[in-house]
Amino acid sequence: MTRLRLLCFVVLFPCLLPTVTAQPSAPVKAHSGLVHAVVVSPDGKTLATGGFDNTIKLWDIAADGSLKERTVLKGHTGPVYTLAFHPKEALLVSGSQDKTGRIWSLEDGKTKAELKGHTDIVDAVAFSPDGKTIATGSADKGVRLWNATDGKERKVLGSHAGSVYAVAFSPDGKTLVSASADKLVKVWDVAAQKELKQLKGHEEAVTTVAFAGDPDTVITASMDRTIRKWNLKDGKEIKKFGPTSDDPYALVWDSDAKLLAVCGYSGQITFWGLEGEKPLQARAIKNPGYCVVFNKDGSGVYSGHDNGTVTFTPRDKK
Q: Is the pLDDT of residue 22 over 90?
């Protein structure tokens, strides 16, 4: 079962949320279907969005955070679930309900290679820090590694007992983590191409995972309405945050701001420090949200929503 099938509209609990002063920008109509992926290029000048209209769009990011549509990438025959920019080259990788991944050249907007092998939705993609390897996770429960140059499969690392919703490489590229509907996060040795350990504690599907600035610290969020911080050295939970006011769907870490941004099913955007018990800032977008990413300078986040819009929410720096 994919995360989308788990979608439920939830009642917000304002009493749990702090007072906020920052205001989100007017939503930009980005796709004719829901927006399931947003990523910012390494130079901070481009936003890529993936929609359930089967397209990927590239947007110029202005100094004030506003967006101007530049290019539409077409080729997938199903909804686009996930995107990742290459860390050094003008390349983008995508994953789709059509069971494939695609490597796109941003110079001509064409497909450079296809990733073929998964038997269900490609729900998660990530480039390694050196840009040589792509990791994917799928609703077929598998985690795979691919050559980022030609799209050839390198290894089926293994599988979960449920759909894989997120994958992330450590900053040093030595470790990969995957989050799944089976309530587990698995930790993989990239060079040895084998499972190292499992992070256990979540009571429902783990929807998202990210490294928090170093190779040993991982942050996860789950349908159990908790956010958790883990130490990969011993595989133990360091801290549990929550309960969150709605079901957290996506998260992103900004190393410069040292903040975590979380997007919830109700559209709730929250910013968290890693020490406090409650979010530092919250804003209700009032439309289910599926993805979130910081802009280049960490001053705010873009989020994608059920009604096909993208919204920029600045963070409160006070």
A: no
